[in-house]
Design a protein that fits this description.
This protein is about 45% helix and about 20% strand.
Amino acid sequence: MPELQSQLDAIAELAASLRQAALATRHRRGVILSGSLDWCFSAAERISSQTNPEESLWVSHQAPEDANTLDHNAVLKRLGSETELLIYDAHGGFDADAFGAAAGLIRAGGLLLLLTPPLDQWPAQHDPQAERFFKSANGLSRFITRLISIAQRAEGIVLISEHAEIPQLAQPGHRETIIISPKGPCRTKDQAQAVDTIIKAISHQHGYPVVLISDRGRGKSSALGIAAAQLLQSELKRIIVTGPRLNSVAPVFEHAYKLLNTAPQTRGLIEMADARLEYIAPDELIATKPEADLVLVDEAAAIPTPMLAELLTNYQRIVFATTVHGYEGTGRGFALRFNKVLDRQTPGWQKLRLQQPIRWGENDPLEQFIFDALLLNATIATEADLSGLDQSTCQIEKVTAEQLIQDERLLSQIFGLLVLAHYRTRPNDLRQLLDSAGLSLHIIRHRQHIVGVALLIEEGGIDEALGKQVYLGQRRLHGHLLPQSLATHAGILDAPQRHYLRIMRIAIHPAVQGCGLGSKLVRHISGHTDTSRFDCIGTSFGVTTDLFRFWQNLNFVPARLGITREHSSGSYSLLMLHPVSDTGRQLTTMAYSRLQMQLPYLLADSLPDFDQNLAALLIDKTHTNTKQFTAIDWQDVISFAYSTRGYEFCIAAVTKLVDLAMREESVINKLDPQQQQLLQIRVVQKRSWAEAVSQTGLSGRGAAIARLRQTMQRLAQHFCPDEIRSTIKNSLDL
């Protein structure tokens, strides 16, 4: 015990020295404590005892009782706040998203403590945090192995092991630190310039858009709040703030309120005299088009480009702010996609990049460690690198995770392309890329540069019993998008048992898009798929006319249309299949037929705002829907009436049965008035659930669905032959 106390005292002394050195340069430092859980906690608590309890934050499911704690899921909600000591416990698993975000909470002079199992054991340890996102491959975690390697050579990171000597504190290399304290509410020169730029743009006779980009922690959101406050104090009457979520724009309101501290404030609204600052969600802002003197769009990279373009059309005075590295999207992809829109619609737009950190000094070693470990600084080839490219100069090859871990440049270029292609790429996607079972990667290479990437995952092969639960909506399996959607939504009972190769993502370098490389890559995958292992190649994406035609030209067939807009694209998701086996061809034919049967009903009910030109492409005019009940119609009715399948997924069969019942007055009269009214409002008139609830006096949507299920049971008992009904219920284990 005395030896342990002596060791803990030495660790605490080293941590104090690290803090002192960090404060001198406004930097932050990191300590990795590797060993048993008890030892790591003892060391962390000893270090924490030197800090104000309110300034110590634990990210752990098993932190000390009196500790200030967050679980992994809550970390992102704390972005914008600060702490002096952040303790991240990796013994219960390592969530890369939460770790990266948590590190951003540490202010200058602060310390990150990462508690891990012994480093030689950590890569082999079962990780429940990883299992939340994907099925891990057996063996060592390549992601954790790489993380350890980067930490071992990172400046400003000290590794302390339970059974090793306490390391000597090395003097960090020279890092220039710029500290500027401008007058007024802004904390850096960059932030002050951003506020001035916004005010000048808004004050211009015609106004013009402003784009602010920065790494996290540079004060872009607070700059929006400061500018909003100053403009409301001068002449503007209504400023609208929008962003992916109200929580994500909270810093805008917080900093505005500091300058307007006499103004009444509610969540997402600040009012003063006849002026107001208010939050409106992007889709509502586009739909209602309220008048505004200024619109502030925070975390713009997390909003689909078509929606940003519409905002740009509707509002002359508008500011777009986004993060280059971070967890709400990537500013690099945003710039490549949206700059073209800005150049076309408003060529006088202005861009400003905030580079100077606010919560810590420039050249912060902890920030560099996080960027390297989570590849937030992933780079792609330059346009000059790709000169002379055509299809003949490109080679397609399959790349293994082992190759990625051995070639950092290759990994960076591949991940950089994936980041650009999809705004929601996160650090956990890097872990999935390196560690996920069933994941494969095909690339297009031009000389030594990566110009195309396709990320594939194996799905399906689910046993019959579990497949029934998936079909009925009783179970949801992570990582099986195609079979689950085909079963639950398209109503194909045996879909989970089939084997699929899903193209999760496909990314082509923006400098060479339109050259046919995407089609070349998909054709290569289709031509090299092992038909003995798979039934279908599939994909799911936010559908647009161009994307639909792209996949259709590659012989993919539409199989299922989503009924809600994707947050990532603002479009409805479309699932498409390309069969590679006889069983796959039968499945694809059935899925296509099911979609054609459902589409007219969905377009009239759940998809009233669906693009009519796109609907015309999806509807097969040669396909005829019979009014006669088929076995699969009865299966839809019974799975809705007696179980938990959704109404919208069974809408065609349910509507056909109700139409049949409405023609027999004696059957309808056996239903009570509320049941009759519910059928008329929701099924026949296709009015919303909210209207059905209001008109029938039911307590809510859940009660209305339950009542409709009871009503459909009555109709099924009358119209469905007993033998068929009994057979279907038995086959579904109902």
